[in-house]
Amino acid sequence: CKKNNINVVAYYSLIHNNWAEINHPDWKMIEKNGKSARENGGRYGFVCPNNGKYREFLEEQIKEMAAFSEYDGVFYDMPFWPTLCRCDACKARWKKEVGGDLPDGEDTRGAQWGTYVKKLQDWMAEFCSFVAEVTKKYMPDVTIEFNNAGIVAFDWTAGSTERISDLADYTGGDLYGDPASHSFARKYFYAITKNQPFEYMNSRCLKLYEHTVTKSKERLECEIALTRAHHGANFIIDAIDPVGTTDKRVYDLLGELFAKEEKLEQYNRGKMVADAAVFFDSSAQFTAEGYSFGNKETAVAAVRKFTERHIPVGVVANGHTENLSAYQCILLTGVQDFDNPEIEKFIKYAQDGGTLYFDGRSDKRLISRLLGAKEDGTVGDGRTYIAPKKRYEDVFCGFSEKYPLPFGYNLPKLILPEDAEVLATVCLPYTLPKDNFHFASIHSNPPGINTDVPAIVYRKTGKGAVIWSAAALELDEREVFGDILIGLLSFAGVKDFSVFADCSTNVETVTFKDGDTVYVNAVSIIPDKKCKYPLKLSVKTAKKPERVIELCEGKEISFCYENGRVNFSDEIAFEAAYKIQ
Ligand SMILES: [Zn+2]
Hints:
Blueprint: E1 9-13, H1 18-23, H2 52-68, E2 73-77, H3 88-97, H4 113-138, E3 143-146, H5 149-153, H6 162-165, E4 172-174, H7 179-192, E5 199-203, H8 217-229, E6 233-237, H9 248-265, E7 271-272, E8 276-280, H10 295-308, E9 313-317, E10 329-332, H11 343-351, E11 355-359, H12 364-370, E12 374-379, E13 384-388, E14 405-407, E15 411-415, E16 421-429, E17 447-461, E18 464-469, H13 479-491, E19 499-502, E20 507-514, E21 517-524, E22 533-540, E23 548-550, E24 555-557, E25 560-562, E26 565-572, E27 575-580
Parallel strand pairs: 1-2, 2-3, 4-5, 5-6, 8-9, 8-10, 10-11, 11-18
Antiparallel strand pairs: 7-20, 12-15, 13-14, 13-16, 16-17, 17-18, 19-22, 20-21, 21-27, 22-26, 23-24, 23-27, 25-26
């Protein structure tokens, strides 16, 4: 590698260590039945980061790794809790730091549960801090990376937060979701990485556990182009054959695809443009009682509402909330009441002039200090409706008092102050939806009982404003729900976006600004190069640009400039990158 000027990054698997479990059974993680994951039939052996002997071994391994060769970086995989460990080291640490018996994690609403969630995060962050410290001791010049996929991919049981990525020189990880979750994760990694570029890993096989089926050329090209479009560094995961070989054809293909994106990488300059930001709270990855979705599901869906409409959107995360005033609006969707200190910054953001959207049961501080409201239980029997008031019907895309907007869950009730403007109220079905002997329509539960319970509220607060919705408008994938969400932001004055593209939802646009120069990347999220997409782009600039160039083909694009916006049309064949100079 050194001879060919290739950086060498060592790989080390934390926690997952079958050799260590077999040879040092006292280090293993213990599951609730008193056995380890392997003893319960699993492939992977897990050793506990709270075990001092394992830590001593780990330091020896890092020391040995340092003596073996020279590296540019070290990548630490698996920095998360794969199971809720009940080993003696965990029990002892809990007893010392909290007192009493280690909770079993099953009683997710019990008195100790919140402390347990926080301890899992503290312990994993402290362990990774130990790993980073030991690495710097023996290899002071290497970069450190922890696999951050777990923050997005798992729930509260993993204990993964930005406190781990904050220890790393750059953020990266491997994810396997749909295009919307990849889009979310790229924006999130971009937001939290200490140094750009962040790294984004895709596997060359569709599933990590396969070994021989390579993804189609178009699919790989699509994934590589979308990471590049977010200014990320591409990393492709491939498993080495047990005999020590790799499939050369895969590398010929990747070489061809990387060469194409390399030509565009020289234009990866400037900062990502985002008019809206969506908050992802990694420290509270659980759902409120009675709900099947929480912050992560709604945050991914909220980002999608903006990307589908080609409105520039970013992600904000714990520990990365310095420049909130740069956003026209911030969305705090499905936020749990979990003592997150960052909430104070969002309250200040709204009071200083920002527009904040939040929904559901949410954090008590948002409800009391921004809405001036009090919680009053929930309303509904599994099916509810939101009925816009007559004078606000324009915002609700055809839904009305007679034909309100349906939801499949109960809604929180708030008691509001007089200065809160109620745009819509809760409407209930004629009959109780769970009563299958009394119903009003063969399949559905039509609306019929109007209430005065507030469902969508607008309130001015300080210099800014807040919108609260009882339901998670962003969660429903249907277009009209997104139109209503964007309509509500527009009602609050958020509408003059930096970029607007009239283009298929199959195309993702990502914009960067470098001084006066604007770069707009447009990439198809569908791996089908036969599709062509007409695009009309409108970009706000301080002055009339000299020229607009499409960088993939190097062609000059004719444009018009009016009211401070550059407007032009083009047709996208899979990928385009525009430089507005
Ligand atoms: Zn343990």
